[in-house]
Amino acid sequence: MSGSGVTDERGVSRRGLIGGSAAVAGVAAGAFAAGRASAADGAARSGSDDAFAFRGPHQAGITTPAQDRLHFAAFDVTTSSRAQLVALLKAWTRAADRMTRGLPAGEVGPTEGPATVPPDDTGEAIGLPSSGLTITVGFGPSLFRDAAGRDRFGLADRQPTALRPLPHFPGDALDPQRSGGDLCVQACADDPQVAVHAIRNLARIGFGTVAVRWSQLGFGRTSTTSTQQSTPRNLFGFKDGTANIKAEEKDAVAEHVWVGADDDPGAGWLAGGSYLVARRINMTIEVWDRQPLGDQEAFVGRTKDTGAPLSGGHEFSGPDFSMPGSDGPVIPRDAHVRVVHPDLNGGARMLRRGYNFVDGSDPLGGLDAGLFFVAFVRDPDTHFVPIQLRMAKVDALMEYLKVTGSALFAVPPGIGPGEYVGQALFERT
Asked: Is the model's pTM score more than 0.85?
């Protein structure tokens, strides 16, 4: 489970626990973290010290240095009107542009409007900075065609070939209420209240046009998307995301993340965008915690202390899969690091932006916890599906994982001045 983690510049907690509802789902409590990492390629500063530009050649929240908190929501479109859908995307663009600059979602704000109408901002972010907020929007396959294959909004002929529901992989235990969706919004920030505020207000703006299908809160990023960030740890206690694509690797980002202009002739609107894979992966924490350290390291293929491969060196040393051990290769054949390594998967790499989650306890008293896996890839058919199939069949870690949610979205390219998100899809040239 390669991911990334905490930046080098995290500040001291300013808030204890927060609670409340986001008009979408129960909102878990979380600690407020201050501090920012530097902006990376594809996520330029918008002027204030802790803000990223919403507009640019690519959507923010992909190569942006991964923030510490996530609120992810998938929406079902409830209207049959294409005009209403476009109006929603325009409204979302205006609100997202404002909120990522630390402004209220609406021009009036949470306290200045008439007492006889609802405010155009919910107000829980009053006094808070933008906290590095990024908002990333994606389109699911069901936005183009319904379950019966009918064209919903005159977009069916522009559906990317690779944009279809992910396969049901061996070992998946998918909950339909945690899977799929017509639209998705990923809100990342260094303050959980800022991320929740973003999703809450977009859901409020969308009332009558969209309805939340499912949402997920995440903490403690499990992805390093910049060389300026240190590698974090997942809930199994291992460093996660050592080999993740970094924003500074411009050639790798272009090769593995951004959709090319000639990748899909029928979906030229997606050029410069990406595909977002979302998987809710429950970890059997209590069972894992009873495994010997040596076994844990063999399952992962790295040391728990430094994250170095079992073949030796340091965290960023290349693993030597041919090095012999006392009983077969020193890095076992079913070790996670071997199963997912690019050298054994046609060179395919992903840019991961996953997060830990703990959603209380299950009916048996165990933690409902794990990894909310998010990855951006150029083509899921080459960069995700084959790797996940291999994991499902031979990865030793799968004994301790259960995938309960799954979705795929096409993420349009960045939004230029005066444009709205996804405009090239809806307005043919």
From this structure: yes
